[in-house]
Amino acid sequence: HGLSEPELLDVLSCDEEVMDELSLQISLEERRLPLIYWSEIHFSLRSLLKMAGVDNACVLTWVDRHVSQAASDRYLTPAIRKDRHNALADFFLGKWAGREKPYKKKDWTDDGIQATETKADRHCMQQPLVFDSDGERFNHRKLNELPYQLVKAGRLRELCT
Fold first, then answer.
1. What is the pTM of this model?
2. DSSP-assigned beta bridge partners for residue 57
3. Who has the most CB within 10 Å: 6, 32, 36, 154?
4. Under DSSP, is residue 46 helix (H, G, I), strand (E, B) or coil?
């Protein structure tokens, strides 16, 4: 498994914790992770990540299972793990492609942080089952990742539909 850089940008752009933290630090023109910030993250993690060919795509993955396990043990409680699988399932379903995703916009005021309900397009890529009208170029990333993410998220009903 792993994610391509465009997939990571889309998933991180749909993560409200990431975007809330970033929007409190800088003014964002759109609710999407700027490429420069992904570049900084990637650079910082370069010794822990490797590129691999998976499902006709170039994906980033941990350099070995020990790094993967250490990151998982440190950062993924069962609840957070399930939330990440839900986010990845939504991504491979194309839930936010071409649609605005709701969020609470947080602004600094004299009284602290003020939250306002709003929506923003995260500019996520579409996730079609096939890429061409002939039905010959399948989206292997979706075909392989979506069932796995749905099972791990406990969304078995969606897997059967």
1. 0.89
2. 54
3. 32
4. coil
